[in-house]
Design goal:
- This is Efflux transporter outer membrane subunit.
- The chain has helices spanning 3-15, 48-52, 61-73, 75-96, 137-203, 209-243, 273-279, 281-302, 345-411, 417-452, and strands at 101-111, 119-132, 307-318, 328-337.
- Helix 5 (137-203) packs antiparallel against helix 8 (281-302), helix 8 (281-302) packs antiparallel against helix 9 (345-411) and helix 9 runs antiparallel to helix 10.
- The chain starts with a helix and ends in a 12-residue tail after the last helix.
- The chain has a single domain, classed as Up-down Bundle (Outer membrane efflux proteins (OEP)).
- The protein is 62% helix and 10% strand.
- It is α+β, with helices and mostly antiparallel strands and 464 residues long.
- The chain has ten helices and four strands; from the N terminus they run H-H-H-H-E-E-H-H-H-H-E-E-H-H.
Amino acid sequence: MRIRPFLTLSLAALTAACAVGPDYRPTPAIDLGVPDTYTRGGGERLSPLVLSIWWKRFNDPALNALIDRAMTENLDLAQSTARLKQARESLVQARAGQLPSVDGSAGAGRNFSNSSADRSSFSIGGDAAWEIDLFGGISRGIEAARADAEGAEYDLAAVRVAIVSEVVTNYVQLRLAQEQIRIARETLTNDRENYDIARWRVQAGLVSSLDEEQARAQLARTAASIPRIETSFSGALNRIAVLTGQAPGAATQALEKSEPIPIAPTDIATGVPADTLRQRPDIRGAERTLAAATARIGVAEAELYPALRITGNIGTSAFSLGGLADTITGGLFSGLSQTIFDGGRRRSQVRSQQAAAEGAFAAYRQSVLTGLEDVENALVALDSSRARAEQLAIALDAANNSAILARSQYRAGLTDFQTLLQTEQSLLIARESYAAIQADTALSIVQLYRALGGGWQTMDGMTQ
């Protein structure tokens, strides 16, 4: 009786390393087709700290406050946090499979009889069961559960990356809408002045009523554009409220004060493509999914082999509490089971898990390529935005000078209203285009940092 537990423990130790199924090893970056550098990046070292709090490079306190609130109050993050807790508890449950399970019982009773004295009875018992992990099915299950838990961490990180990017995006769009409203209202003031001048000149008989009608039409068009921009402004404002876990309305009133469009930083390091594989949580999550799928092949293969289960029980019963220790009975049993025929179900499960691992590997490779594509596209968009901004600044300066000359000449009667109208429209387009390119440049920065996987590196408890 004393030798059997020792033999059982020795057997478990010897077989612990005999786990069936493939051992997972991460695929090297070179085998995934990852290039050495980006086509538009210089390969400068990317600081993990800068990447983790990249939005602070805009130097906008209001934006920083919104991000801080979103990281604590966003409900999508709350859901992902709950899923992470669930995955971690699944790992705890999987680890419990390596340990024996023990159940205890106790009972007491009272027997009554009219022919003899009443008698009490007491009993205490315990049952134990332990499945020996002969072929590593349990250990592979733990391996899969651990990979799932780590994958849930990266899922949470990916949600954080997305939330940060969305908050910054809507903040930039909010400030753009405010700038567009300001431009429209200033243009409306000029259009009203032009309308007054045209009406006065018509009344003075200097021009025909055509000038007045054209001025009135331009004034109405400009006025009609403002409600449309205000709708965009309200949409961005309301979205920010929801992203920060608040109801639209009073919570975001402080943002209604007009502020400039955030100025994008000019110096951005991108690192090398291999860095992106480590920085992007979606890629790391896909790799963990592959690891879990590989481990589950071993779980399925272990079902093809014999299973050893050890059970035992111990109990005692007496007619008094003091007599419970007088007689103790128990037993220790072991059983070996093997499926003889199941119609090929278990082997089919192995093949199914192998197919799942193949699919997970393809998904992992796809996530790698998509991540590299995102960075390349973001770099192109950033370069394009900066080049366009330079030219649009020149166009704005020229349009502004033309409008000043046209206004003075129209007031002096040296040009017609059609010329003034065209220059005013050109100025409006130039001002709107320059504001839009400022926002596009900032949004290109957002796109790039999101593609690089920025915004989660400082999260507590994360697997780096």
